[in-house]
Design brief:
Structural class: alpha/beta
Radius of gyration: 24 Å
Number of helices: 12
Shape: elongated
Oligomer: single chain
Order of helices and strands: HHHHEHEHEHEEHEHEHEHEEHEE
Helix content: 40-55%
C-alpha cells in the first residue's frame, strides 16, 4: 500500500478499532485506554500514517499547534521553560510555534498578532512592569491564553502561573543574614522587569526588617552573565562586601567568575547567591546557593492548564497559581554544604 494512500480507516481496520477511537488516540484525548492508545500509535507508525494537517484543521477547527511567545530564547531559564512546555506538548501530540521579541514591546505585539489563525492557544511570558495594558491590547480575546510570570493588575481574564519572587528574595536575604553577613550587595535585574522589581523589593524588605546594622547596596544588571561579570569587577574596585545576592543565577555566575579570576575566595571572603537554580548552578565551583524555581515544571503546568482551556470537554481550571521557590544551600555561602 503506497504511503500517501494510507487513511485513518486503514489504521482503524489494522488496529481493529473504530475510526473515532483512532482519532481520539492520535489527538491525545484522555478517554482512550492506554493499551488501545499504544496499539493505535504502533499501527499508525508502522503504516506511516500522517494526518493531513489542513484537512484535520478544517474538520476539527483545531490546528494541534500551540503558540509560545517569550521575551528571549537565550539562556538556561528559557531552555528549561521550553523543555517543560515541550514535554507536555509531545505527550498530547501538539506542536509548538515559538516566537521571541527580545524585550521590544512593539515586536511582541507583532508576534502575538501573527499567531492569530495559526494556533489553538497561547502561552505568553511578558515581564514588563510598565504599561502592562499593552499586552491585553494585542492578545486575541477569543483565543485561549495562559500567562507565565506576567503581571496584569486588575485583570483576571487570563490564568497566570507565576513565581513568588518577593518571598524567595526574602528567604535568600534572611539566609545570608543568618550566616552573619551584614554588608550585602544586591545585583538587581532590569528596572522595567516585574520579576526583577519583586526580587529587589524582597531583598530591601528583609534588610530593612533586620535593623540598622544591615547595610544594603543595590547594583543593576541585565539578567545575563556579562552584567554579573561587570558587577563583580566593580566590586573589586572598593571594599568587598560580606555577601553578594544576584537576582538570577546567570548574573551570579558572571560575578563568581570575576571574583575568582581576581583571587577572591568564595565564600571565604565573599559569600555569593543567585536565584532560579538553573542546571549549571550545581556544577560550578563552588556550587551556587540559590532559590530553586522548578522552571520546567512551571512550563509543564502552564501547558497543561492551556490544554484544559482548549478542550471543550474538560473542566477549565480556575484561579491563578503561584509557585514558591525553595532555598538551596550550596558551598558558595556555606563551605562544606555540598550539592543539592
Amino acid at each position: 500500500m503506497a504511503k500517501n494512500s494510507i487513511t485513518i480507516k486503514d489504521v482503524a481496520r489494522e488496529a481493529k478499532v473504530s475510526v473515532a477511537t483512532v482519532s481520539r488516540a492520535l489527538n491525545g484525548h484522555d478517554n482512550v485506554a492506554e493499551a488501545v492508545r499504544k496499539a493505535v500509535l504502533e499501527v499508525a507508525d508502522r503504516l506511516r500514517y500522517s494526518p493531513h494537517a489542513a484537512a484535520r484543521s478544517l474538520s476539527s477547527r483545531h490546528t494541534q499547534t500551540i503558540g509560545v511567545v517569550l521575551p528571549d530564547l537565550y539562556g538556561e531559564f528559557f531552555s528549561e521553560l521550553i523543555r517543560g512546555i515541550d514535554g507536555v506538548a509531545r505527550a498530547r501530540r501538539q506542536h509548538l510555534l515559538v516566537s521571541s521579541y527580545h524585550g521590544d514591546q512593539e515586536e511582541q505585539g507583532r508576534a502575538l498578532r501573527a499567531m492569530r489563525g495559526r494556533v489553538d492557544g497561547l502561552l505568553v511570558l511578558s515581564p514588563y512592569a510598565e504599561h502592562p495594558g499593552f499586552l491585553t491590547e494585542n492578545l486575541p480575546q477569543s483565543l485561549p491564553t495562559v500567562l507565565i510570570n506576567t503581571h496584569l493588575p486588575d485583570d483576571d481574564h487570563y490564568p497566570v502561573l507565576s513565581i513568588d519572587d518577593h518571598a524567595g528574595a526574602i528567604a535568600m536575604t534572611e539566609h545570608l543574614l543568618a550566616q552573619g553577613h551584614r554588608r550585602i550587595v544586591f545585583v538587581a535585574g532590569p528596572e522595567l522587569n516585574f520579576d526583577a522589581r519583586e526580587r529587589l523589593r524582597g531583598f530591601q524588605d528583609a534588610m530593612a526588617a533586620h535593623g540598622a546594622d544591615a547595610r544594603a547596596r543595590v547594583m543593576y544588571g541585565d539578567f545575563d552573565e556579562a552584567s554579573g561579570y561587570r558587577a563583580g569587577q566593580q566590586l573589586l574596585q572598593g571594599e568587598l562586601p560580606d555577601a553578594v545576592f544576584a537576582a538570577n543565577d546567570m548574573m551570579a555566575l558572571g560575578c563568581l567568575y570575576a571574583l575568582t579570576q581576581a583571587g577572591v575566595q568564595v565564600p571565604g571572603q565573599v559569600a555569593l547567591a543567585g536565584f532560579d537554580d538553573i542546571p549549571l548552578a550545581r556544577f560550578v565551583h563552588p556550587g551556587l546557593t540559590t532559590m530553586r524555581v522548578s522552571i520546567a515544571e512551571l512550563g509543564a503546568q502552564a501547558m497543561g492548564r492551556l490544554l484544559a482551556l482548549i478542550d471543550p470537554a474538560g473542566a477549565a481550571p480556575q484561579g491563578n497559581v503561584t509557585l514558591k521557590p525553595t532555598l538551596i544551600v550550596r558551598d558558595s555561602t556555606v563551605a562544606g554544604a555540598g550539592q543539592a
